[in-house]
Amino acid sequence: MSIYAVNKLCREALRDVTFRAALKRDPQAAIASLPLTDDERAALLRGDVAWLYARGAHPFLLAYLTRWELFGLTVRLYSERIRAAREPVHTE
Amino acid sequence: MADIVAAFGVPHTPNFPALVAKQGSDCKTARLYAEVARHLREASPDVLVIYTDDHFNTFFFDNFPTFAVGIADQICGPNDQTTMPSYRVAGEAALASHVRAKAIAGGFDLSLMQEFELDHSIMVPLHFLTPDMQIPIVPLFINGLAPPLPSARRCLALGRAVGDAIADWPANKRVAVVGSGSFSLEIGGPKIPLGERAGTPDPQWARHVQDHLEHGRVDDLVEESTPARLAQAGNIGGELLNWIAMLGVVGDRKPNFIAPEIEHGHAYAAWRLD
């Protein structure tokens, strides 16, 4: 269930300019207080969108991260990684 | 009693307002919207009932209805930083309340929202179809993006129930119904092309859907639009459900106008029902 916090983080990056700037400046510090699991936190910090997608993060929201290249995710890098992703459980 | 005078289907691609502002009114996208807008003007509706998904802007996963109706006198948007003008449009709250009551009585438990803004999924169609924002709207939401999606059959039945409610509305008004969305579109998922944020993974399906629409084969369309088939068309492929709900007032009638933009995985269509 806590993938909810990942989805919410993506939406807040779109809506909250201050949070977005903090994510850009120091991602580890910016997400420190969020209710993420250790695995989610690690996956975000390494920009592992395939892992997040496979656990149910919504791709429409994940793709926001590329708009500001958060967690190092250029469009190119994001697309390379997501194209290798496994489908989440609900569509398998 | 109210009359259902027309139905329309259009895309709501968020970069279209900026694209048309740049390319001008002669570009293909502008001409296709203009053709639908012409039919809309001729049908002269007093109210637009619009089916759309939302993209986690009006709703989020903290509170996420499968079906919902918006009841408000004034509605603003877009609320998702789409590059386009900000608009305020009137809501037709009396019809929205009537539809909600009738739908619930008929077995469709529509969620209610009364204080909300709308994202590009309604504001882009209005920007092109009724840029003066002079026609009040009733927004109806269908979850087309976050599995599990409602079935196509359920969405068609919802569209019929809403159509019955509109026809039963004791107001001497002309009502048009709009469905908005893509047939094949992937955003941010494994089917995107390398180096892109989005793509059209299944243009063949988009063409096939357009063919069913063109020939009034609503039952075939509903039969084939399984969750797996929609997913194959892309993670935004569930937006077809907005069109299928709209077809609830169309039945097997053929459109007066239909044209594809297959490269984008969607189409534009108009049915005159008066």
* Highest CATH level, the class of chain A: Mainly Alpha
Q: What gyration radius of chain B follows from the Cα positions, in whole Å?
A: 17 Å
Fraction of residues in β-strands of chain B? 15-25%
**CATH class categorisation of chain B:** Alpha Beta
Amino- and carboxy-terminal Cα gap of chain A = 18 Å
Share of helical residues of chain A: 55-70%
Number of helices of chain A: 7
CATH superfamily of chain B: LigB-like
Helix/strand order of chain B: EHHEEEEHEHEHEEEHHHHEE
Number of domains of chain A: 1
Subunit arrangement of the protein: heterodimer
Could you tell me the strand content of chain A as a percent range?
under 5%
Kindly state the number of beta strands of chain B.
12
Total domain modules of chain B: 1
Q: Give a count of the beta strands of chain A, DSSP E runs of length 2 or more.
A: 0
Can you write the helix and strand succession of chain A as a string? HHHHHHH
Structural class of the helices, strands and pairings of chain B? alpha/beta
Principal-axes shape call of chain B: globular
The total count of helices of chain B amounts to 9
Q: Distance between termini of chain B?
A: 14 Å
